[in-house]
Amino acid sequence: MGFRYIVRQAKPEDCGSILKLIYEWAELGKDPDRVVQNTEEDLRDNGFGDHPIFQSIVAEAIDDGDSTDEAQRGTMVGYAIYICTYSAWTGGVIYLDDLFIQPAHRGKGVGKAMVCKVAKIGAQKGCQGMQMFMQGSNKAARQFFDGFNAVDISEKDGWSVMCVQGDHLSQLGNYLTEPEVKNDIQFLC
Ligand SMILES: CC(C)(COP(=O)(O)OP(=O)(O)OC[C@H]1O[C@@H](n2cnc3c(N)ncnc32)[C@H](O)[C@@H]1OP(=O)(O)O)[C@@H](O)C(=O)NCCC(=O)NCCS
């Protein structure tokens, strides 16, 4: 079966298909410590609401052997989620949060095309770099990103990734409502 591929910006109506791919990636990754918590509505709100906090491109496979209109619309086989972030020292950074291509469509250049597109978006926004996190056990992803001359800054510069998660985040926010911390601090923001 011959496929051609389309890479395009995601639309709100793609969120259901993106979520299915997120679940597929979670199932294949088999990491018991990481659970998909997002719903389709979360993705729609967070990516396409009044104040989107992520952006996404998707890859569709179109079966050239089938010319019906439905087939022409394509099947979603991959997604990339990215955001623009900022380093006080070096400026804009494009952060590639997640990238997944269905196994049947790997090895055809689609993953590379997605990375190149995100890199281009970053360069157009004036970003100085592209960052991504991956688990140390994901050797395939490591080799994939090595091919783009990515440098492991945790190895090279000794960086650690710190994360305040779940209830601890709301506890931090709630700390400001405790009377004893009002002290001499006035917030104007
Ligand atoms: C990693 C992933 C996105 C690669 O997608 P893909 O469409 O198969 O990659 P491509 O076909 O575009 O390959 C691009 C290059 O990477 C290399 N590459 C791809 N997968 C590789 C692997 N498993 N091991 C070594 N090299 C690999 C290819 O040989 C190719 O090299 P070339 O440009 O010299 O020909 C895909 O395997 C995937 O979805 N993996 C699971 C999710 C994941 O690990 N995401 C990344 C971390 S969030």
UniProtKB/TrEMBL annotation:
GO terms for molecular function: N-acetyltransferase activity. It comes from the Eukaryota. Pfam families: Acetyltransf_1. Residues 5-167 form the N-acetyltransferase domain. PROSITE patterns: GNAT. CDD domains: NAT_SF. Keywords: Acyltransferase, Transferase. InterPro entries: Acyl_CoA_acyltransferase, Diverse_Substrate_AcTransf, GNAT_dom. PANTHER family: DIAMINE N-ACETYLTRANSFERASE, GH14572P-RELATED. This is Diamine acetyltransferase 2-like. It comes from Acanthaster planci.
